[in-house]
Amino acid sequence: MHVTSPVREPLIQGGKTYADVTEDICRHVEATPTKEWKIAFGLSLIVLAYGSACLAWTWWEGLGVWGLNKTVGWAWDITNFVWWVGIGHAGTLISAILLLFRQKWRTSINRAAEAMTIFAVICAASFILMHMGRPWMAYWALPLPNAFGSLWVNFNSPLVWDVFAISTYFSVSLVFWYIGLIPDLATIRDRATSKVSKFMYGTFAMGWDGSAKTWARYEYISLILAGLSTPLVLSVHTIVSMDFATSVIPGWHTTIFPPYFVAGAIFSGFAMVQNLMLITRVVYKLEDYITLEHIETMNKVITLTGSVVGVAYITEFFIAWYGGVEYEYYAFFNRMTGPYWWAYWAMMTCNVISPQLFWSRKLRRNITFTFFISVVVNIGMWFERFVIIVTSLHRDYVPSSWSMFSPTRYDIGDYIFSFGLFFTLFLLFSKYLPVVNMAEVKAVLRSTSAQLPAKIAGVAKVRQRGTAEPVYNKDQE
Amino acid sequence: MAELSGKYLVGVYDDDDTVLHAVPKLRKAGVKIKEVYSPFPIHGLDEALGHPRTRIGIAAFMFGVTGCCCVLTLMIWTMGFDWPMIIGGKDPISIPNYIPITFEGTVLFTAFGMVITFFISNGLGPGTHFHPRFDVRATDNKFVMAIEMSRNSMSEEEISRALKDSGAEEVNIKQF
Lengths: 477, 176
Known about the structure:
The complex is a heterodimer. By secondary structure, chain A is mostly helical. Chain A has helices at 18-30, 35-61, 76-100, 110-132, 158-191, 195-204, 212-245, 257-283, 292-322, 326-337, 341-353, 361-364, 367-393, 409-432, 438-448; strands at 461-462, 471-472. In chain A, 66% of the residues lie in helices and 1% in strands. In chain A, strands 1-2 form a two-stranded antiparallel sheet. In chain A, strand 1 (461-462) and strand 2 (471-472) form a beta hairpin. The longest helix of chain B is centred in the middle third of the chain and has 28 residues, at 95-122. Chain B contains five helices and four strands; from the N terminus they run βαβαααβαβ. Chain B has a four-stranded antiparallel β-sheet with strand order 2-3-1-4. Chain B is rod-shaped, with a radius of gyration of 25 Å. Chains A and B meet through helix 1, helix 5, helix 6, helix 7 and helix 15 of A and strand 2, helix 3 and helix 4 of B.
């Protein structure tokens, strides 16, 4: 029999039954879109349209519309790319690493976090295409025979490693997410009333029937996928950091980069998960599933990874001084006190100081404060990448080539494009797919529920199309 | 997953623990259970039903080895033989530089190969509209046990009574 440890707080509140879980999660998928959703969706479409127009002009006219110059050849494009890829890492951490660590609290948030991963990686990939300038030549990054117009790709280059890392990461995350979705899609399929949703959810549920044999294999492949995704996610940001670390630019050429980037990625990703989940739980009334306990636990991860990042900053700075290489020393001293001092101090304040406030339990469990800090962390992590990229480039060895970078409206517009894309995709996901993994929540319900109902199965409800409130199915009582 | 035919007795349970304990009890009583359908995985249920341990892990390993070899071969052949290039003063074939892509390729092949194997071995695929044909509540809140009558020598009443005794809420008859 299952035993509940009294030491831990229950993960699922409100004495839910299995039927309640189905009902609470499916309700939003089955209902017609709310007014708030339509407004939010409309807004993100407008943002996306504006961003697309800027992007179209960027591609039509060429990268000259950006604020780049001969000295600063990488700026917002790669900053945004690293920022989005980093955000993506939290989803895989929650779904894969926490699965291996048998952390049951992940079940309420893994679905949305993985969706966030996929959309964030799409946004990141869009910056890769953007910064190529000639996106129709993007296939040159693939290992195609010389007859396609170029030599074989250089497999020694971290940029080519990145192509493989990002595309593998995206496709494996997508598969992992989809495998997790199948049982829930089957649940929706079996509740669907309209022909269209029956067909759509039926097609994507792939004929899932929930037999013991299928579940056994499902659990087995989930475990292997988690085992694969764990080193994969660590490899992705490691390789992203090698884009910088293998070059000989002072400020980039440091061996500390891989662990430092991975910690920063998880740090910013959890902040984004917090932002999304704090809104989702209120809009979809999921307070019983995503509880203060979940929020507090995520805040602890933010504090831990934020501290790792802080230690990395300080170590980097110490080594720049202690190493005695004057160019290295200058790069870091210039970051702190040079013309981009404000970016450096914004980064230090947002990333090093703000997560330390979560040592206070009261602040950790304060929803408004958590939301605020999560936004601050994401701003800080954007500045981290900006500081690393732009301040390392803007001072060359020859003072005559020193310059500054200032973004044009197309730099900003292309960044706005990624937000439009991200929120459009996330809103579509949150409307048409279950935002919480029902099967996994049901599986942990008995051992983690606050008060178990006398009959855990509960009474299933059926929804009449178009009605707001579900009615009890008379046949089942 | 072959098409179903014949007559089935369907036991509907209300609780995952009950169904898990019912399975060995029924098998001891001589009832041959076809399958149990549940809305979430119940640990130990497949062993209780006597299903053999899945060999999908072996398939995954094979796909991983294939991926590793394919990607490594591609890199060694292109960089070392098809168009040898000396980059950064290194040997045209410099294995340490190939490790990241070899790793990614291994992961990619393993993940996709394993998932495709999973779909094929379970008969899952787009267009296969296999609904839970015994009871639609098996994806919501009920645990559904299917017993094929033609495979059992016991009478319908006997099995029905055994199901009820083991904790089944309802026993239905399903004819295909």
